[in-house]
Amino acid sequence: MAITDTETKILVVDDEQEGRRLIKSILKQANYNVLEAANGVEALEIMRNEHLDLVVLDVNMPKMDGYRVCQEVRADKFLRRLPIILLTVMDETLDKVRGHRLGIDDYMTKPVDPEEFLTRVASVLDRRRLYEEISMTDSLTGLYNINFYKNQIDVFFNMARRSGIVFSIAVIDINMFKLINDTYGHVAGDYVLTRLAEILKKTLRKSDIITRYGGDEFVVIFPDLNSSQMEIAVDKIKKAVASEDFTDERSGKKIPVSVSVGSATWRRDIKDPTELFDIADNKMYRDKKASEKKSG
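The chain above was modelled as a monomer; its predicted structure follows.
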């Protein structure tokens, strides 16, 4: 069996301690990072405060059963894409239909066979990774993702080399994002990412291509903007973020958010899209250092 990445975080939810212990033991042997919850309410709290890759959820629990937990997850815009494997002692078609209607990724009957269970877990995780790789949309923010950016930047770069039409890009990074996650929780961090995406869409032109590059970094392609126009655009982005209220709707806490931005404009001496990105990225890091020096 392949050794798994210990960064893969799985939540096991079962009201019976022995049931949790057995599933946790199987997952631990495959080197997964495992968290556990004894009921649905506790499970939802963990989901909203941790970056999880998968939830293994028992159906039969008091107060809030597995189906109700699934309903809550699928109704939550921050959690709705979280993969779920349902576990039940029942093996009735009706239960499976109900589970699939709730968007369950897989379904197993207890007691699980360890080898089959780990195969199912790996399959669900692989499907989710494949979806992210082939999709052109970032699942959290709804923006285009890095795959779309790479496709589009090649198109713009080739067009510019053929016709000389200028375009620019901007790299945007959230300042002190790790501190935001550590202080307010990962779900608050997700909230900041989605709010920033909304601000960028509201602030920039419809023709500007906004992408979530990865983590807390965004890249925007600006068709037909030259370097002086980009300075105005960068200033506009910073002011728009600074003027917005980032209050976490769950906790009611106001989160201080600012961004660092670096831009680059196409020139004939720039060899490829990677060099263009590196110019903008280096400017962004200089802006970040200046911001940290000013705030310090």
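The first helix runs from residue 17 to 29.
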